[in-house]
Amino acid sequence: MSETKKFMYVNRRAPYGTIYAWESLEVVLIGAAFEQDVSLAFIDDGVYQLVKGQDTAGVGMKNFSPTYAALGGYEVTKIYVEKESLEERGLTLDDLQHLVWEDEDDDWAEKDSIRLVSRAELAEVFSGQDVMFNF
């Protein structure tokens, strides 16, 4: 029997203009489908990936941001957002999508997936991962 690995996907880039954000989301969903311990971190311009109400009509790309709402169903429940990156871009937690998961051990109560953390706290989270990918 194989041991479950802890995978962290670090998203640093804006959601549109490159394929990095979309590819990261696809890889996360694939890893989660294979029952890996998958986490995401959003830092720098990557925080824009979670902004609610995105309109991509002007850039000619499909809006994939609603797909983040499916992560809880794949048991991706640890989504870290760096507080300083939000602040540097004039954003708050209220500007982001409300991502949740259902806790079967707590009578299917909805729980928040997004964890707002400082750079120092995120560095500690990074140190506990087996594998990290930067997008």
Report on the structure:
There is one protein chain. The chain is an alpha/beta fold. It contains three helices and seven strands. It has helices spanning 20-33, 83-88, 119-127; strands spanning 6-11, 37-42, 78-82, 100-103, 109-112, 114-117, 131-134. Helix 1 (20-33) links the parallel strand 1 and strand 2. The chain starts with 5 loop residues before the first strand and ends with a strand. The mean pLDDT is 93.
First-residue to last-residue Cα separation: 30 Å
Largest sheet, strands/sense/barrel: 5 strands, parallel
The backbone outline, from C-alpha atoms, is globular
Tally of individual helices: 3
Instruction: Report the radius of gyration as a whole number of Å.
Output: 15 Å
Give the helix level as a range of percent.
10-25%
List the uncertain runs: none
Order of helices and strands: EHEEHEEEHE
Strand order, main sheet: write it out.
Answer: 6-3-2-1-7
Seen as an oligomer or otherwise, the chain set is single chain
Percentage of residues in DSSP E strands: 15-25%
Structural class call reads alpha/beta
Q: Got a strand count?
A: 7
